[in-house]
Amino acid sequence: MKENKVYQTESKELLNLMINSIYTNKEIFLRELISNASDAIDKEKYVSLTSAGKVAPRDYSIRLCADKKARTLTISDNGVGMDHDELVSNLGTIAKSGSKEFMSKIHEAKDKGDVNIIGQFGVGFYSAFMVSSSVSVLTKKDDGKAYLFVSDGKEGYTIEESTKENPGTDITLTIKKSTDDEDFDSYLEEYSLENLVKKYSDYIRYPIKMIVTESVQDLDKDGKPIEGKYHDVKVDKTLNSMIPLWKKNEKDIKPEEINSFYKSKFGDYEDPLDYLFLKVDGVISYESILFIPSHLPPNYYSDNYDAGLQLYAKGVFIKDKCQELVPPYLKFLKGLVDSDDFALNISREMLQSSPTMRRINDNLEKKFIAHLKDMQTKDPERYLKFYKVYGEQLKYGIYSSYGGKKDLLIDTLLFHSLNSDKMISLKEYKDKMPKDQKSIYYASGDNLETIKMLPEMEKYRKNGTDVLLFDQKIDEFAIMMIGDYGKTKFLSISEDNKDEQTKEEKEKLDALTVSNKRVLDDIKEALGGQVDEVAFSTKLVDSPVCISTKEGMSLGMEKTLQEQPNASPEAKAKKVLEINPEHDLYKSISALSDDSKIKQYGSLLYDEAMLLEGYDITDKKGFVSRLNSLMSEALKK
Fold it and tell me: pTM of this prediction?
């Protein structure tokens, strides 16, 4: 007798929400039904293993069958099947999770066997109504009666006894007709179904089969192929690969297989620069492959760059770009994570907020950085290739964490330096420091040549003291967050730092400052608010002047901040015009008795210093006027 049952009001509301709102992509209905079929086979396999021989194992599989004329798509499995009460409980009550209950029973039995169930059995089933006008479920348990469940996903459903030869479940969808907005016909096409299986369910552990049409070349009477002659044949084809690459033993995988997997899965035309296999068991368990692309994508720094790793739960594809799996500074990584520990919500598309995701994120980050350090030691050439492309991202990781990732990342950094032809680490720099050197010196600028030509570099070059060369905008900001390396502080050679002066140098400069007060005051007055101080320098050898800054912000940092949208006018470096008292030019200027001439020359010295630092002159008209006036006067003499 056919039973007519009506959904409860709450179930109707939830069903409507699920069909029209929860699932953002209708094509995932097939993933849900295949996952449920896999769950059912898992259950049957467990029953077989624990039945003491009463239930024989069988050749497990999932089968798809599309009938264009009838507009039906059937998904069949030879899994555990359902009886009358289970149909009502699992399919008649929305959000009832048969798999969740089944797992609870297994935990109580203390022996899970070979069972791997994604859960949410009843919920995933109803995704079928996104693409179908009605759904029928023909199901049978071992040594049980067969039952037929039919529903249009609106008011209710019917259940009646039926006939079915073998245990398992057949779910038949009557596919909706296509509209201007939705192409439902594609769900009856062989190629579309193959693509959906490959995309979402390729790594389901059981074969997903379908009879497909393939074109075969005709043969002549001698069995040789006839050129241009083909005929169609029906082939029973397995659509999925079943064994994920990341679940294989890495030693059994050839490099070309990994490279091919990367290029086909992530749409790259080059082999990856490097990759990392991870199999982690413990408080959290997951498997992962991380790839380092050989190049940054063209849109890497744009707002529409899609970062994140592919997310799998128990071999089932859940999400393409899961940003929560990697920190932002590692967003260049491609790859995937597969875990049994993800807590999925009702649609499998979204993840519940849980500590699992954060723990995997932290664990992936630490293991990847450890891999980089290992590469740095064992394969420095490969690491240098990596660093030239992604070194800026590691520095961003330190800066964006306000130094929180300093200990994790500091030894991954490399820099050019004054005394080295190759990039060096901070450890290499410090190991070569003289015992009496107080700081790790650095200089910054737009490019290496500009930095090397800085006038304040003269003293360090003369003394043979090494200086790190910062040619990226992020460098100084990252170093500011680092603060020190092994308790040795960083110091910009352009910083006005009197602690670096010897007692003799300080006494000499103090005396010169007193005796040259009029000249220094005239120059500062001429420069107005362009500098905070005019002082004598011990840094210069051949150049007459340089610009230094007070502790806190350099000229480079000021420039970077001023380039940002809505830049604050307060973000200004405190400049010091440093003068070489031994230079002939200064000696000539200081000998002048005309204060106005001293001021003109002082302004020119400032402009010269800014040019040497690699910056443009802001008042070009004033600079040309002063220069012309002084040259004219000199020529008259």
Answer: 0.76
